């Protein structure tokens, strides 16, 4: 269907949007039919159109529209974000990895990001245009063992990488190989000794596994941060999110729909997490150091809003 092709094209261009005339050219469709479909999608709130030059429209999927009032909230495909998803009505954008998500937070492609603490710390120190508010959850990850020897897979600049380095005294890790998505890690599991992975993927795999909590105790996995532009323009919505995050109950159906996992898996996997834990800045410094990242408390004070 033409509508599906238009939606796929808009998904591909994401934040850049595309001129309506370019949609006609790329899809080799009639101008009137494209216009008719876009009008329907616009009335449904699926897309946004802005007049650019003359009478030309630029078109975006609503969740990628850079000038709207709604909160654009980036998350990873993990049930550790169940409370974030349940807390507010927002335009949720699901990413495959923490680097892409946190980069888009820096570039104001999303207003708020829930992503690994370590990723936000490193980007925040370098770019100095985001603020970290709270730890969203702790635990919920571990190692699933494969058939290889010494080579372990994980995601780069993530809680998984820090935890993997922290258990080197207990597990002989010769080398670490980085993957851009959990699915690619799982595809390569047979040739690896293990992968450091999070819920619900760790629950989905039948292989022998061990949770990091069993080896090194409780560890923070993700934090919630906003960029400075969003803090100025959408302060009320961010404060609403932070407030409701502490009080809400998980909406399992909503989480299932947004992440694409079945509801039973969501319910089972969230049991691995402790949501809204309290961490001091000193505890954050200690956690980072255990994973080989030695930062002073002073270097983090301006980055963290509430700790």
Automatic annotation (TrEMBL):
Gene3D superfamilies: Periplasmic binding protein-like II, Winged helix-like DNA-binding domain superfamily/Winged helix DNA-binding domain. It comes from the Archaea. InterPro entries: Txn_rg_UCP012876, WH-like_DNA-bd_sf, WH_DNA-bd_sf. This is Uncharacterized protein.
């Amino acid at each position: 269907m033409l509508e599906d092709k238009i939606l796929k094209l808009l998904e591909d261009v994401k934040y850049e949007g595309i001129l309506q005339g370019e949609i006609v050219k790329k899809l080799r469709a009639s101008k009137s039919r494209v216009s008719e479909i876009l009008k329907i999608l616009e009335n449904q709130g699926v897309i946004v159109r802005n007049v650019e030059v003359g009478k030309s429209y630029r078109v975006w999927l609503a969740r990628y529209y850079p000038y709207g009032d709604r909160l654009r909230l980036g998350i990873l495909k993990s049930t550790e974000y169940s409370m974030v998803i349940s807390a507010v009505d927002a335009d949720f954008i699901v990413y495959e990895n923490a680097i892409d998500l946190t980069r888009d937070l820096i570039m104001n492609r999303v207003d708020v990001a829930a992503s690994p603490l370590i990723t936000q710390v490193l980007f925040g120190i370098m770019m100095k245009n985001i603020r970290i508010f709270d730890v969203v959850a702790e635990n919920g990850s571990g190692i699933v063992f494969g058939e290889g020897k010494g080579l372990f897979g994980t995601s780069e600049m993530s809680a998984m990488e820090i935890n993997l380095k922290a258990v080197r005294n207990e597990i002989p890790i010769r080398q670490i190989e980085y993957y851009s998505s959990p699915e690619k890690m799982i595809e390569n599991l047979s040739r690896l000794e293990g992968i450091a992975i999070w819920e619900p993927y760790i629950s989905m795999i039948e292989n022998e596994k061990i949770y990091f909590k069993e080896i090194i105790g409780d560890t923070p996995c993700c934090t919630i941060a906003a960029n400075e532009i969003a803090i100025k323009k959408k302060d009320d919505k961010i404060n609403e999110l932070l407030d409701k995050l502490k009080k809400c109950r998980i909406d399992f159906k909503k989480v299932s729909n947004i992440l694409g996992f079945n509801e039973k898996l969501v319910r089972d996997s969230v049991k691995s997490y402790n949501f809204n834990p309290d961490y001091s800045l000193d505890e954050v410094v200690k956690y980072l150091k255990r994973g080989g990242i030695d930062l002073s408390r002073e270097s983090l004070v301006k980055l963290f809003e509430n700790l």
